[in-house]
């Protein structure tokens, strides 16, 4: 009973039009829930609603009916009694005639008609009644948008679900549809209307049916929308995109062949229009029509269709054919949308009806092209019209050929021999020899136009070769005659293309381009039925390879040939052509790899490497072969250098290593088994270094060491833990056999370090750097032997000035296990122990890491030379970074030492050297920034979240107080540099939380740093921090408070002479400041405008552009009449 | 105000492919990039592109599409601090020509360094009162006077306000 009481309430609420829509929705929801739960049955509801449904108050009645309809929509999937459905549909059908309640009636009918698959569906008789009532009593176009949409949906639903009933109605439905569509302008309604037309066409396919008899009227109603054009494009995002609607229209137009007499002339007319949209739409629609109307109906129009299509192709083709590298695998000229659609249509027509090809073959313009071709030999000599002829005709012929095997045969039979004649390419006799003309001096004539046409034909025809599995299913008799034509000419074709490439010189890339493209086309025929024999295929490979090996400079020809080879390689891999793969391996891969191995060839080394790595990456087997070759090449060149002192060899080595790092490592995930080969490569690098005991020549090859370090580090970085372990072990063995262990015994005292005057030998230096790289790349899980002595070794070597050692030490500290229960059981040394060694105090056995430690003392200049001081600072920074990233507390002490170095004097009153201070300031950059060379994700660093934030909160307060108390300008500048490094590397959210405190010091920093051009990069990063705070809502208050200082500072920076981006950013910041309250910034307008006006004459264009925008913005506030 | 369209059916030209500035990988901080033709054209086009001599939203063409301004119509000499812009009204008696000319002048005055001398001209033979127009557009006093007329300033500012298309 309670439910019923509520019901009346809800009903009242819904019927009352003065209430808000949310109110309505709520009551609707409440009733629907009780219906769904079964508290209320639909019968009860109808009985309860009796008064609302029959009252004479039109508004209430309309609302009542709408409510009932909405309920039915909710209950779409709930089983209902058939009798109920019948009576309800009867009710709604009757109400359709009553215009006041038409919305409710329509929604009700729609909700009932949509029911399917559940108990209680509308019977066909009832559906017929609905349709009849609708057709007779509703004037669709007089309704509102939403109601019109309902009408179309109802029509669509009726046609889809009750086809038989609708067929009974016959003419009536067609009339109703015509009437409904007439004058419709809204995309959502039209979308459904077009579908309705399609459904009608499907329902009445008979030539004596209502659609056939009414075709002309129906077509008139829909054709007036063609081509679709939206007059109101904006502000209607929810609406249907033009493309969809245009597709719907196209489907409607092509839906029935009865439209054909009207549609095709219309479309042809629109195709000749100058509007691009009309052209594209007509071409798309013509294609749909060709599919649906059938060949016999389309045939009548061929003689109009073909010229129109041809014109569209001519008009949409541009004549600038590109002979560049990128177009080797593409058509070589830009394709507009019109062009693409025209091509699609042509292909469709030829595929559907081979007789259309007759028009193409007999076309005068198509046939004329052979004269055009033979008139010019070079493409650039051609007139634009001739270029157009050649391009369009090649396009027409190749598209037609692509359509089907049959059309391909016809095209080749008609044109290919003629083309070959024009080009002077001769046939092969049955014996395989070339037929020579009487005058044997007649050589092939390399007409560019002809070559282009020929290549287009060959390229398209290759897609027609069935793949091996299809081949077995098609009978041999259907074998392609075009294939035999091509194979008759193949030998001479290859020869012609080869000669085109060879005759080309540097200033003309067209010859080389066409030649290589032709060879590529010939080489890309698939499978056993290819018209190109194996020996001919091998000849192509040989030619291309010889182009690569013969050129000593990187010409266009060289690059083209390389790209062609890579294309062929990946083509072979894609279709797994084992025979061709063998030829490729033998001719291309082995040739190139042997070139890499032999150090004596005319080709510059980097070019061989590039070619080899490109070509070999197409297939895993080639990669294996290549890495083997690289390994051998490395070993031989390296030993050649060691023994004979050949500097050329060491240069080759570094180029080879660069190639491995840049070309191979990035593709590790794509190529299977590459990791294994690379690990092998790394180990043989160590072997080679181990075996060359004596370097008879000193080498100043910094380049080689750098390259070797990079390669080694990256290989270790990507290798699995097991492989890492084997590399580490190998490296450790090498290091123990060198003289380096001697350094481990050096005690950490200044005297001992001073005594170690002699630098490391070249070999030791190489070994040390490489070993450091291995350690840097190793993951925390890898086991490192004898950590304690290694720590000592690195410690001594970075004090000797080897930064790589400091980085390795930092990495090691970062990854070591903590204490006995650490992550790593295999190492024999814990973090504590390692730190003990590093930070051991000079006189007592207590371990702290502050300024009392040996390192700290060197840093602060208590002992050791200036060199030692700066090295110790840099080293300490790397160690600190390792500790910081893993979240170790000891970094705080290190930071304190570093900050101590920034003061102008140390605790004993001695002045610190400027270079010490500079290194200390830079140490903060090392600590905070993300490093490329070590301690990053790639090298498996242990990274605690928020480590930067933590460091920020520790150091910034101290730095700030130091700045306040700084004694000399230099110390002040250096403190600012350090602070800038910290501030600009921390995530911007942290800055925003502390804007109030930071802003003054950032501004001061900006003005201090702008004095000297040395700090320009730091200045820029600090300025970026400032600009970040300006735009954010969090920082706005303090920005507003400091507006005068910010503007003053930015105005100064607009004329900063040393870095363009600084000026640009400063001006952008000034423009951003306009978001502040008007009263706050208005006083500064004169100052800002003056500065920006000066910037209009800036030497750099980007600054001027910003200045114009900024000036415009600031001018507008000064002339605004109302201040706020 | 004129009622109706001055030019009901303007010829619309295809937008010419913009000359892309070849970024000459100019890494030298201290080298000078002089103001050139393209830069002036950009200044004018970026913000002027909804001045139309038609006020009908059905024809939202830019000055470039109507060939009122082209890149070649800008002559500039950075060394001599001189720029001349020649524009072509779409019809001979276009009454908007003064507003376009004035807007171009104001835009350049606001965007170029003060050392520049700006010369605005109507293309020869493109306007009925060509000589008068040229004189009016280049007369300092008259330009200044025009800019003191609040109605005119409002029209110019409307033309120059950044459009949000």
TrEMBL record, chain A:
It is found in: Nucleus. GO terms for biological process: DNA repair; iron-sulfur cluster assembly; protein maturation. One of its GO terms (cellular component) is cytosolic [4Fe-4S] assembly targeting complex. Signal peptide: none annotated. InterPro entries: ARM-like, ARM-type_fold, MMS19, MMS19_C, MMS19_N. Residues 653-1073 form the MMS19 C-terminal domain. Keywords: DNA damage, DNA repair, Nucleus, Repeat. Residues 46-313 form the MMS19 N-terminal domain. It comes from the Eukaryota. Key component of the cytosolic iron-sulfur protein assembly (CIA) complex, a multiprotein complex that mediates the incorporation of iron-sulfur cluster into apoproteins specifically involved in DNA metabolism and genomic integrity. In the CIA complex, MMS19 acts as an adapter between early-acting CIA components and a subset of cellular target iron-sulfur proteins. Belongs to the MET18/MMS19 family. This is MMS19 nucleotide excision repair protein. The lineage of its organism: Eukaryota, Viridiplantae, Streptophyta, Embryophyta, Tracheophyta.
UniProtKB/TrEMBL annotation, chain B:
Signal peptide: none annotated. Keywords: Chromosome partition. Residues 51-114 form the MIP18 family-like domain. InterPro entries: FSCA_dom_sf, MIP18, MIP18-like. The keyword Lipid biosynthesis does not apply. It comes from the Eukaryota. The keyword Protease does not apply. It holds the Pfam family FeS_assembly_P. One of its GO terms (biological process) is chromosome segregation. Belongs to the MIP18 family. This is MIP18 family-like domain-containing protein. It comes from Brassica carinata (Ethiopian mustard).
